Batch of 2 targets.
Target 1
Amino acid sequence: MLKIVVLVSGGGTNLQAILDAIDDGKITDTRVEAVISNNSGAYALERAAKRGIPTETVTRKAISDRDAYDRALLAAVQRYSPDLVVLAGCLVVIPEIMVDAFPNRIINIHPALIPAFCGTGYYGLKVHEGVLARGVKVTGATVHFVDKGTDTGPIILQKAVAVQEGDTPEILQRRVMEQAEWEIMPRAIDLIARGKVTVADGLAHIRE
Ligand code: GRF
């Protein structure tokens, strides 16, 4: 049984995709132990509560000191002893102490084809605004292991999505979520649950 803790900040559609994939058997032998957010108003927390999954919030409003916040966030995650930490629409900068505690055991979904449109300042709609401003014809999403950089860890899965004439950032975001994010995040978790993903020389390898 792969025990996971999911970190969220917003609507939780990626969390929902994970929960649905567990129900549908598309993710094998996996249990969501808890959902933790930096945002007490995140609808993702309601999605978890509806399923009876424990939820916690660790907000900067409550803990303004950065180091204290980082330690509190790590402590909240460790309370559930997860095998894997999943960042699903999580806008928190993951502290180095968490990466040290979970080496190659934290994964993130980024709404672009890394190394394009990623790194500092590229999150949420800003990613899709950059894609449209540059006029690229193909974008997509990436699931990667989290290291101490921003969107720089080993890439596990990617899926391409066509940019269409007339796309707005909102329309494009929705297409990337529907056609890429909600597919590759559950698939990545299933591969990890089945022991099919290894990391060597800074690269993730999948052996189905
Ligand atoms: C999505 O675009 C996701 O790629 C990004 O945050 C947005 C909202 O995700 N990381 P969710 O609906 O909260 O899962």
Target 2
Amino acid sequence: MTTFTYDGLPGRIVFGAGATRTRLPGELDLLDAQRILLIATDTEGDLATTLCAPFADRVAATFSQVRPHVPVEVAELARKAATEADADLVLSVGGGSTTGTAKAVALTTGLPVVAVPTTYAGSEVTPVWGMTDRGRKTTGTDRRVLPTTVVYDPDLTATLPAELAVASALNAVAHCVEAFWAPRHSPVSSAVAEDGIRHLVAGLHAIDASATDSAARSDLLLGAYLAGSAFAVAGSGLHHKICHVLGGAFDLPHAQTHAIVLPYVLAYNAPNAREATDRIARALGRTDIVTAVRELGTGLGVPGGLGNLGMSEADIDTVVDDITAIAPADNPTPVTDDGVRALLRAAWAGSDPGETAR
Ligand code: NAD
């Protein structure tokens, strides 16, 4: 018998090629934004200036000192910028780090956020915030940080370097895979996750052409939205806990860490996660799901193992306890020190994920 609780999240989603040109100004009008704090890194600076041109007179200040994993000092500077500008809305244009900075402002000011994502991170549809203080990453959930409106424009991802696009898309695949067994999974999150994988895989198969192929970009960004939505309601499972600990402890790049670790967690859980396995296989169109997921990044610039990201083999033992301490109790395969150690050793070396299966 099926039993579940589904806590739906609010949010207005506007999706379409060119939507930042055709729809963003109207969305800001709907929210009566008069004094906008624009958050965008220098890399996305020109793009942000171009798309803000129609309402430049309402951009009260721009904050560009975004850093990965939102250091608390950066959050404070962004909040100060919002206060000094007397901002009534935060507009973020960029990847997960930029969205995360906007969320940090919303967390203490309560200002509404309009998010324009330029990667496949998915943070824009979650109520989760994250901040880093002296190398330790803290996350929390607060509905104040959930963007009021998200404008998805696949045209903006055309400039993503191919290797980053692949890693970011695999980060989104991880959101979908994990949504099948995360603590608050439900038939709703599973349906969204399955369709998310389908779109992401279609986009990944055409990734070589995604700079010029608008259908591929659309598939990837739609898949990323579905992935973020599934993750937002289902929560974090073993995979996210592992990546969270590794990212915080060794300052590893977010998307690449997810892309490397995913096949190993999938191999670890698959033997005890029948429904997830069947649905992932259906979405992938293949029954050898661990190999299939690993092959999504093969030859497309995803580093082979965590060792290639600069983590040392001796580091593995230093994080095993931290991971088992926060791993969900109802993970499909029981999470043991030995199990996590073996998983990390394989992921570090980039060896066959099948060896992780137990
Ligand atoms: P990122 O935002 O750090 O961006 C990575 C790089 O890509 C940056 O150098 C950026 O300037 C560049 N970039 C972004 N868009 C581009 C584009 N269209 N063209 C060219 N370059 C572009 O990385 P990310 O992977 O998007 O986000 C990672 C962060 O998001 C992590 O801190 C992670 O914890 C967080 N995150 C949070 C949640 C949540 O729910 N709170 C969910 C997912 C990710």
